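REQUEST FORM: STRUCTURE PREDICTION
Request ID: SP-0412
Submitted by: Lab K.M.
Chain count: 1
Length (residues): 86
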Amino acid sequence: MSALSDDFFGHMVHEWTCTELRAGFDRDSPPDAVAYQVAEQSAESLLVTFPGEEEADLRLIWEGECYKIRFAERQYHEYFCPTELP
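STATUS: Completed
RESULT:
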C-alpha cells in the first residue's frame, strides 16, 4: 500500500483563533486548543511559540493564501490552505 492509495494526505487541519490553535486530523474528534504567541512577524513568515512547549515553535511561511511549515528533522514541508469544514 502507498500513502496515496491509503488516502493519507490532506487530513491535517489547523484551526486558528487570535490566541489559540487546534491541530488535528479531520477524521478525529476536535483536539484541545493550545495557547500560542507570535514571536516574530514579517511579510514572508510568522514564528509562533507555545508557552511551556519550548520544542514546539512553528514558523509559518506564506505562499499566497496558504502557508507551509518545514519540519527540519524530516526534511519536508507540510502545506495548509484555507478550506471550509463540513
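NOTES: The first strand starts at residue 12 and ends at 16.
Reviewed by: T.R.
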